Each structure stands twice: as structure tokens, then as C-alpha cells.
Amino acid sequence: MNLAWEEAFFQSRCSDKTGDVLRIWRNRNAVVIGVFQKASEEVNLEYAQQIKAGVVRRFTGGGAVYHDLGNINFALSVKPVGRKVNVDYLYVDLLKGVVKALEKLGFNPSVQNVNDIIIGDRKVVGVAASLRREQNCGFIHGAMLYNVNLDVLAGILKIPLKKLADKGVSSVKYRVTNISALKPELRVEDIVKALIESFTETLDKKGWYPDLPKQHEIEMAERLYSSKYSTPEWNMERKRPEW
């Protein structure tokens, strides 16, 4: 359902039924794979079943991500005025919102491989994006490692050995780290506040306000969930049912 909300807000923004939307959320025990990935190649499905972790496909590209309640997820749907939405806008301009948030929290982050944000030599955020050129709207979302169980993460994700070797490490859990391990005093609330402030500044907004989903967004999310994100055809085989 969380992935259905992501797409519903993006579609709503692209059709001008709502303004720019920032959503921050957490999810229990799941693996989210990229739209082009094959679940069996990216996820230890037997282990996922043992720990009752869901496997769901998002509508953006990128790699597989493990979620638990130690993960802080953010999603931004925008339609800028006077600015063309392209790949640079998504992965340079909008990504600055996440970088600024980490800077506000006292870190010195940097972007690596276009869509990874690292602190030191450890990855703390992974980002994926989508755009609709004909409607000039963009979407970026990501997962921030706050206090994720890295042992479960290492066991449930299948990371190609070559990818690990290129980084000089032997296990995925040594490529990433938790923000709580770097600064134990930081609370979830501190990170949420920093993300909101930084994206507001990045978009040059005068302010922000909390809101509830509109009725058409609720209906769209429910339809996307029932016909797409809850189906094995989409999640495991990448076959999109008609709806």
C-alpha cells in the first residue's frame, strides 16, 4: 500500500490535482525492488519467507532496498514552474534536498554513483526517480538508513560479488551504515524535520503544511494496490495488469 501511495501522489501531481507533495514514511520488514529487476535474482526469497518479509516492486528503477522500521523513507512529487524536468533536475537539483538535510544534522555527505549518498565511505541513502516529460513533472524517492538491522539486510539481499569486490568489501552490510551508529543522539524526529526544511529550501518554497490525502488520491491508491502492488504478477514477474 505504501508503494501505491507513492504512485498515486505522483499521478495526482502530474495531472495538477494537487500541489507539490513530500511524503515521509516507514515500512515494516520488506524488500522493495526496482522496476527492471527480477525478484529471484535480487532477493533471498526463502529467507524473506522465513522472516515474513514482503517483496514488492516499485515503479522507479534502481536496486533492491531492505525496509524495516529503522528505515526512513521520503518521496517527493513536483511540477516546477519555469524549469524543465529532466534527469539533472531530479538527481542534481532535487537530490540537494537530502544532502542539505544531512548537513543540517552535522554530517559531511557526498553523492556517489549518481543516486547514492555516502558519509565517509559508507552509504546511508539510496535514491530512485521518475519523470513525465509531456507533463513536466518529476518524482524522487529514497531510503535513509537510520537504525536498520544490517544483519537481516545482508541476509535478504543478493548483492553480486563483483559489485562487492569493486568496493573492496566482502558483505553488503559493510558497504552501508546507520545514521544512529554515527550520531546516536539523533532522533527520527530530527531527521524528519531536517528533510522537510531542506526540501522546502531546495524548492524555494515559502513554507509547507501538513495535509491528508484527497478523495481521488485515496481511490487511486486503493485501485493501484488491488490491481498492481498486491499482485504476484507485478511484484514477482513485472506484468502490469490492466486497470
Write structural notes for this entry.
- The chain has a single domain (2-205), classed as BirA Bifunctional Protein, domain 2, CATH 3.30.930.10.
- By secondary structure, the chain is α+β, with helices and mostly antiparallel strands.
- The two termini are 16 Å apart.
- It has helices at residues 2-14, 39-42, 45-50, 87-94, 96-104, 150-156, 161-166, 179-182, 188-202, 215-229, 232-237; strands spanning 21-25, 30-33, 54-57, 65-67, 71-78, 109-112, 116-119, 122-132, 137-145.
- The longest helix has 15 residues, at 188-202.
- Helix 5 (96-104) packs across helix 9 (188-202).
- Strands 1-5-9-8-7-6 form a six-stranded antiparallel β-sheet, with helices on both faces. The chain has a three-stranded mixed β-sheet with strand order 3-2-4.
- It is built from eleven helices and nine strands.
Topology, element by element:
Elements: H1 2-14, E1 21-25, E2 30-33, H2 39-42, H3 45-50, E3 54-57, E4 65-67, E5 71-78, H4 87-94, H5 96-104, E6 109-112, E7 116-119, E8 122-132, E9 137-145, H6 150-156, H7 161-166, H8 179-182, H9 188-202, H10 215-229, H11 232-237
Parallel strand pairs: 2-3
Antiparallel strand pairs: 1-5, 2-4, 5-9, 6-7, 7-8, 8-9
Helix pairs in contact: 1-10, 5-9
